[in-house]
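Re: the request from the purification team.
They wanted to know what the chain is likely to look like in 3D before they choose a buffer screen. I agreed to run a prediction and write the result into the notebook, where they can find it.
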Amino acid sequence: MALRRKKGYKFSDEVMSRDAIISLIFGIVGLIIIIFSIVIAIIMKGAVPEAIGALLLASGIMAITALIFALISLNDSEGGILSKRGAVIISIIDLILLVFIYII
């Protein structure tokens, strides 16, 4: 007798860590702000308004907060490791870009 195949989708029951979700959101929003600021600086040939500096300061705060939440989520037992590592990587990329912009 042949085995019958179930019709339908199988979804994972694995949940993501709340800290990793918060970290991913802050990291992605911070990265978008940094890229937006770089594009505006290129378009305006370096003569950017003061609001861009405030946006970069806000993205720095978001990057630090994202890194803190990402490190907390690494110790959390629930959720997959991929989202936790992704949150750490995005927040570190944000901080590296901000330091690079500050040096230039």
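For the purification team: The radius of gyration is 19 Å.
Please add any questions underneath this entry.
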